[in-house]
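Annex B. Sample input.
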Amino acid sequence: MKMKGEGNKMNNPQIKNPKALLFSLCFVLMFSVMNGTMFNIAIPDIAEAFSLLPSEVSWVMTGYIMIYAVGALVYGKLTDTIALKTLITFGLIVFSLGSLIGFIAPNYGFVLMARVIQAIGGSMIPAIAFIAPIRYFPNERGKILGIISSVMAFASGIGPILGGVIGGFLSWQYLFLTSAFIIITLPF
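Annex B, continued. Sample output.
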């Protein structure tokens, strides 16, 4: 099923600036993956802020990872019927909204809700990041997938470091605010 106005562009789409697309995808992917790992460092601070047991506060990470995994599968399937631009716009807006809710969260329920909203938006990113090379870079697919995989690995490693720096100098709420900066990629 094709979206109105897309015609055969789904099979052989043309893009004006492929390097800009790749850079934007990698930048957004880096924020998405870092967001998944940088909260690991903040778990004890969140538990202390809301007087939570370890089993209660672990839902900050578990909830995000569960929704993120399922969401990536759903977005992957949606790319067959909905334009990538629409999915990217939706995902970035939802992710940023979740980040802003988390930053101002007055209680633990809001923190959990913010993480779930972030995951709903953020799970779009890995799905699109691995589908875009197939659609837009058919002759360089291996190279582009290698770059994207490298960005994911780098972001997984830098996430806890960045989380520790931000949490140490500011507070865990600023991890949410840092994640909200992903919205600056929307115009690109």
